[in-house]
Amino acid sequence: MAVYYDTVVVGGGIQGSSTSYYVARCGIEDVLLLEQFERNHSRGSSHGHTRITRMAYKKPFYVKMMTDAFQQWSDLERRAGVTLFKNTGYLVFGKDTEEYIISNLESLRLNGIPHQTFSGLEANQRYPRQLKIPSTHKCIYEEMGGILYASRSLLAFQQEFVKLGGTILDNHQVTEIIPGDRVTVVTNRGSFKANNVVIAAGPWAPALCSSIGVDLPFKVKRVESIYWKVDNADAYSSDIFPTTFGIAHGDTFYSIPVDEYPNMVKISSAGGIWTDANNRDTESGPVTVPAVADFISSTFRGVACKPSIIDYCMYTVTGLNSVQLWGSL
């Protein structure tokens, strides 16, 4: 016999965990969060120690969303009693003709977000032990940006969700969703009925939605999180060096200072290979290392050009490469 819940959320990553938490915060009782793997696994998009968060986005509506997001992260920190965000600042740099630079700057100005602009030469003077970017580049420094602790944030959402009476079942793979007056969610370990079902399965969402006749134009990309040794860990400490986002050779690169692995920075590209959620590790090896190594050699001081650690993560990419809303399915 199927067990009844008011709301079932499929997928225990950051989207599903936060959704479950906020549904429970609204006073909805009997909320179930289903995760196909163990909690805080490393198969999807939400694992790992660090991510960059910031106000600077080229689309103004994202900036408005981030104002609310920062407040909600602060609220979750207070409730969970754990640090989720470190304010390091966020430095963007590239040619002043780059559309990304122009649109980011315009978006920050339109929304009144505190920021500074200066040349690549001044950036190198501010960070003489770390940077050697082209002197004519344009830089945007956003004071509010920094590091979001990813796995810690995921666990904080789940912890607070359970405090509100929510239920989490991991190692429950959803195999079928059957629409009806009450939706039936079938897993490898039993069935559940619910008034509402939220599919927050990330790279597994297209297959699940397709099974109920909804074809979403999503693609899955495997990206690489690459860690590189530094000569001077103090110079690249997250206490003094910001997160960065650079544009070069038609590609984009981000960096996170030493915070996760001792004496290593995370410097990676948004590039990767298109893949299938269930075959992430059967594809070819890392593909972005040469481009990232070239970027490092032309941008940073005292960073090895041979990677020490490579992790994989999956992006679920919409047709617009942005958030898309379809409403109820």
Automatic annotation (TrEMBL):
Database matches in SUPFAM superfamilies: FAD-linked reductases, C-terminal domain, FAD/NAD(P)-binding domain
Keyword Oxidoreductase attributed: yes
Coiled coil regions, renumbered to chain: none
Domain of life: Eukaryota
Record Pfam families: DAO
Stated family: Belongs to the MSOX/MTOX family.
Name of the featured protein: Peroxisomal sarcosine oxidase
Lineage: Eukaryota, Metazoa, Porifera, Demospongiae, Heteroscleromorpha
